[in-house]
Specification:
It is a single chain. By secondary structure, this protein is mostly helical. The chain has 15 helices and 4 strands. The chain has a 4-stranded mixed sheet with strand order 2-1-3-4, sandwiched between helices. α4 links the parallel β1 and β2. It is elongated and about 95 Å long.
Length: about 375
């Protein structure tokens, strides 16, 4: 194998990419607008949730509770009757409906421990899960203030928690969403570009030209791996420094060089996977269908969307065979917790082993594909 052949073929791939405007637009969009939009719409905090309140008490305490629901977490609450509560929720007009019963303030002053009813539209999952906790906290705060003003014992939890948030003290959703979206785009673009490069050769008929040249399948494949890897690596570095750090003002704690080294190993694995999918698919539409079957579980189960610890143990073990699982672990440790090589070396080794295995599997498949064309 000659490195000069690999270099010249890689330059050919870069020139071919430059002549493909749609791919260039996809790369630009994926590492700029997609990162910004994904970071700013992360649904982990409540935002303008619609709430309706049935006030059957009409007491000062009920008024304080109603006034406690304010933007940006909630829309101004609508006062409705009890008969309207179910119909409005059935129509999807309210996510939350709070019923303050009659004599609520009187029973509280008599220390009878009255209860409130909260109806939640659980089809709006992101708002429902977070919103119920917000409402409980707001109601408990207003009730405790009212009780303290009347020299009553406040309603307190039996355990007091002293919360200390590390690595993201502001609990800012943008800090998590932006970095994880960069990681997802690295995986997405590397697989798409590598597989599309191979299919483009087949559709344009240039594979037959390569077969009559004094080059080996390994040289062809390595050229596609390094050219695709360089493009995605440069784009990810640009996105992390310009979009994430400068525009979104997300502080990146760890070493950018160490992260890019891990990204290079990850790209070695994912570009090989993209070439493998390109040998399986016979056309771009088939390649697109394969991408949906592969990218969706890789993205959802890698830990970039939800923590791996919340997944079944079997799924966690299976996903250790996927390169982006180790990449997510590596990226979170470096960029969030300022981890060094002494901490993330197991992920580096895993990416190297998985990448090597995927490369040789793809090379074997690629050789068989070329043999059928010869």
């Amino acid at each position: 194998m000659r490195l000069s052949h690999v270099g010249h073929l890689g330059v050919k791939e870069l020139r071919s990419l430059l002549r493909d405007p749609m791919m260039l637009v996809l790369i630009l969009y994926s590492f700029t607008i997609a990162i910004y939009s994904a970071a700013t719409v992360m649904p982990e905090t409540l935002q303008q949730a619609p709430i309706a309140i049935v006030d059957e008490d009409h007491s000062p305490l009920a008024g304080r509770i109603i006034d406690g629901f304010r933007p940006p977490y909630f829309q101004p609450p609508e006062l409705i009757s009890q008969l309207e509560m179910d119909s409005r929720m059935d129509a999807g007009r309210d996510t939350f409906a709070l019923d303050i019963p009659p004599n609520f303030q009187r029973d509280l002053l008599a220390q009878r421990q009255p209860t409130l009813q909260l109806n939640v539209d659980a089809t709006r999952m992101t708002q429902a899960f977070a919103g119920a906790g917000y409402i409980q906290s707001i109601v408990l705060t207003e009730v405790n203030k009212f009780a303290a003003s009347h020299q009553l014992t406040p309603l307190a939890s039996p355990v007091a928690l002293d919360l200390r948030a590390r690595f993201n003290p502001e609990l800012n959703r943008i800090w998590f969403g932006s970095v994880m979206e960069v990681i997802n785009q690295v995986t997405l673009l590397s697989i798409i570009l590598a597989g599309a490069a191979l299919l483009r050769e087949r559709e344009h008929g240039t594979v037959e030209h390569l077969l009559v040249m004094p080059i080996t399948p390994a040289e062809i494949m390595l050229s596609k791996v390094w050219s695709t890897g360089v493009v995605v690596l440069v784009a990810s570095a640009f996105s992390l420094t310009v979009v994430v750090e400068s525009i979104l003002q997300v502080p990146v704690q760890g070493s950018l060089a160490l992260f890019l080294a891990g990204t290079a190993l990850h790209l070695f694995a994912t570009t090989a996977l993209g070439i493998f999918l390109g040998t399986v698919a016979r056309s771009m539409p088939q390649f697109g269908l394969l991408l949906m079957l592969v990218l969706l579980p890789l993205s959802v189960l890698s830990g970039s969307i939800s923590p791996r610890e919340s997944m079944p143990l079997g799924v966690q073990e299976i996903m250790l065979a996927a390169p982006n699982t180790h990449y997510v672990m590596l990226a979170q440790a470096i960029l969030y917790r300022d981890a060094g090589l002494s901490v993330v070396w197991p992920q580096f080794v895993s990416l190297a082993l998985i990448g090597t295995l995927l490369f040789f599997l793809s090379l074997t498949r690629f050789r068989k594909t070329l043999a059928t064309l010869a």
